[in-house]
Amino acid sequence: METTMEVMTIQRYIHTSPRKLRLVADMVRKMEPTKALNFLEFTPKYAAKPLYSAIKTALANAKQRGIETEKLSFKKLEINESIKMRRYRAGTRGRVKPYKRRMSHIKIVLSDDLNLKSQMSNVKTEKENLNSSKEVVVDDSADKTKSTEGGMTESSK
Predict the structure, then answer these.
(1) Nearest-angstrom CA–CA distance, 101 and 85
(2) Is 42 helix (H, G, I), strand (E, B) or coil?
(3) Which residue in 39, 67, 116, 124 is a FRET match for 137, CA 20 to 30 A apart?
């Protein structure tokens, strides 16, 4: 019986809002980490850069432990909210307009579990089967009453 190895990396206090980081993380979550690095390298989002460095660090930690990086997959890729810096902008008539600069934490857990990879591929095939089996049914019975002048319908006359 082969034991599974896990590697965890946490990047804290990243100066990008969690919402923007989650958009990029959702694109990468189902990929293998090495493919995700190639994808993030050419992603035109500002949030791709800190996520790229976090995944690179996680892969380096795995290599340090002696795990082959080709066998790894994402077990968790969490984007959590960090502290909010409160800032102020000058408003009209000497007033103050407050706003918050949001920061985030990235938590990555990589695993070399083969069962995890097979589960992810099964989920992908099930989604493809559901998308291909959907049928569109058009119901024309909703247009039985047609509106005429004065706001009255033909059925109410």
Answers:
(1) 5
(2) coil
(3) 124
Nearest CA-CA partner of 23 in 79, 89, 84: 79
* Mean pLDDT score across all residues of the chain: 84
Answer for the pair 33, 52: CB distance below 8 angstroms, yes or no: no
Structure tokens at 103: 């920061």
pLDDT digits (tens, 9 = 90+) for 52-102: 999 999 999 999 999 988 889 999 999 999 999 999 999 999 999 999 999
Cα distances (Å, whole numbers) of residue 153 to 10, 139, 141, 145, 149: 64, 20, 16, 6, 8
Q: CATH top-level class for 6-124?
A: alpha beta
Pairing type for strands 6-14 and 73-90 reads unpaired
Strand partners, 16: none
